């Protein structure tokens, strides 16, 4: 497929040649076309040759991409064919690029397969962050479900503790007071026993 610019300003004699190929894939049970190579010709001599990457679509479709370029910032779908070639001296960028080499009907493009990836870096990062948040939520729910409350399983089996007054004359009869040097001392007479059920 050749685009001839004719006598348009300084582009006189410039030809852009697209080399397209078709292949049959048994897995998809249909023919696919791909852009194999792009050549720039000026005054009937090849000036630059670029190998095309990831530019393909079913033969009954067209291919569309916002940018098809040899520049790195546009994903470099066009790669110079060799290091010794003059292709490195050229920068090629097609904006709103659409191509269909086969099965063209009435001069109109068929339904377009777009080059936009379903798994771009932004989408992948969003999926990873969603997975992390989902794991945190699942762990939190797991901890809440298995949290045991002590309010329902805590029982006191005795009456409240009390402190009885111990006088000086009763000290010998009782257990050792808490403070023996003072006039009055107190001792825990009744202890409280509690059971915790878990």
From TrEMBL:
It is found in: Membrane. GO terms for biological process: regulation of cellular pH. Gene3D superfamilies: 2.40.160.110. GO terms for molecular function: ATPase activator activity. The chain crosses the membrane at residues 122-145. Residues 117-154 form the V-type proton ATPase subunit S1/VOA1 transmembrane domain. It is a single-pass membrane protein. Residues 1-102 form the V-type proton ATPase subunit S1 luminal domain. Belongs to the vacuolar ATPase subunit S1 family. This is VAS1L protein. It comes from Geococcyx californianus (Greater roadrunner).
């Amino acid at each position: 497929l050749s685009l001839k610019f004719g006598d348009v300003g300084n582009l006189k004699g410039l030809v852009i040649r697209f080399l397209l190929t078709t292949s049959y894939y048994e897995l998809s049970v249909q023919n696919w076309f791909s852009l194999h190579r792009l050549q720039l010709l000026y005054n009937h001599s090849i000036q630059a040759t670029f190998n095309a990457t990831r530019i393909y679509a079913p033969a009954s479709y067209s291919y569309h991409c916002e940018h098809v370029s040899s520049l790195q910032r546009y994903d470099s779908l066009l790669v110079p064919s060799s290091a010794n070639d003059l292709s490195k001296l050229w920068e090629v960028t097609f904006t709103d690029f659409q191509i269909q080499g086969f099965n063209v009907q009435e001069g109109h493009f068929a339904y377009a397969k777009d080059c936009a990836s379903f798994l771009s870096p932004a989408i992948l990062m969003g999926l990873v962050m969603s997975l992390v948040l989902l794991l945190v939520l699942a762990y939190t729910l797991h901890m809440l479900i298995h949290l045991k409350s002590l309010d329902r399983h805590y029982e006191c089996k005795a009456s409240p503790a009390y402190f009885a007054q111990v006088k000086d004359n009763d000290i010998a009869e009782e257990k050792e007071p808490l403070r023996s040097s003072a006039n009055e001392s107190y001792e825990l007479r009744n202890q409280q026993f509690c059971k915790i059920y878990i």
